[in-house]
Amino acid sequence: MSPPACSIPKEPGEKDRLDDLQRTVSASRLGLFLQCRLKFYFRHVLRLKKPKTPSLHVGSSVHAVLKAWNKARWVEQPLTLKQAHDVFFDAWADPAEGSVPWEPGEEECEKTTGWRLVETYLRESHVPAEEKPDAVEVPIEADLHQHGLPKLIGVLDLVQQQQIIDYKTCATTPHAEKIVHATEIQTSAYALLYRHNTGQQEKGMQLHHLVKLKNPKVVLTPLPPMSPQQETRLYRQMEAYLNGLQHGQFVPSPGMHCASCEFFPECRHWH
């Protein structure tokens, strides 16, 4: 009997990677698996390397400044604009971040856009500089073995007065209802991590979108604490993740998102 079409033969070392992936799961890995199992396979099982995209480079450079700004608030020594500027340009030039296949003239344009996002966010003071954070860039985990699930891991960008704040850069203004739905895996995972590590319920979440428009803007989307229904949905999604990995169910999910997928050529040759 021939193997089912959804099964992909395991290469040497692949079994060990699959075992590791079943022990822990993050919101980003879970979201990717549910979006497209074959893309998950290429990225996390085969670990195929792809060049960093310009938008990802902008986002990570902006994030480096916000991380430094929040850590400075933690030690009650807020960054000056000059210090923030230096952090941004150091992050932009960091060779550890990998090379980006820039088009002619694109890099300087994107660098200017990224810095303008930072300036806009700091100028509008969406989080008061004098308020000390509860936590900044905290790597935490939640042992969910009692539910028969992998250990959940993650890093919280910022916790401020028991509110979980997450930063995102984007090219268009987010639609509140759609973004709440699209980010539910991440926000529920962060809420669960917060509760497991503090013994308290979060007071809510805020998504801070830094929007790359001609005139940059910041859009804040407040969210209530995670509901029992959302917690149950997260557990069911994690069960699907675990079951899919255990059975090698790595199949493509064709759709509009394929247009920007870095693994499009590999996917077209999948059989």
Structure, explained:
The two termini are 17 Å apart. It contains ten helices and six strands, in the order H-E-H-H-H-H-H-E-E-E-H-H-E-E-H-H. Helix 2 (27-35) packs antiparallel against helix 8 (184-198), helix 4 crosses helix 5 and helix 4 packs parallel to helix 6 (106-124). Strands 1, 2, 3, 4, 5 and 6 form a six-stranded mixed β-sheet that branches. It folds into two domains: 14-38 and 133-260, Alpha-Beta Complex (Lambda Exonuclease, Chain A), CATH 3.90.320; 54-124, no CATH class. The chain has 271 residues and is of the alpha/beta class. The protein has helices at residues 14-23, 27-35, 37-45, 54-74, 81-93, 106-124, 176-182, 184-198, 228-246, 264-268, and strands at 24-26, 135-142, 151-160, 163-170, 204-211, 217-223.
Secondary structure elements and pairings:
Layout: H1 14-23, E1 24-26, H2 27-35, H3 37-45, H4 54-74, H5 81-93, H6 106-124, E2 135-142, E3 151-160, E4 163-170, H7 176-182, H8 184-198, E5 204-211, E6 217-223, H9 228-246, H10 264-268
Parallel strand pairs: 1-3, 4-5
Antiparallel strand pairs: 2-3, 3-4, 5-6
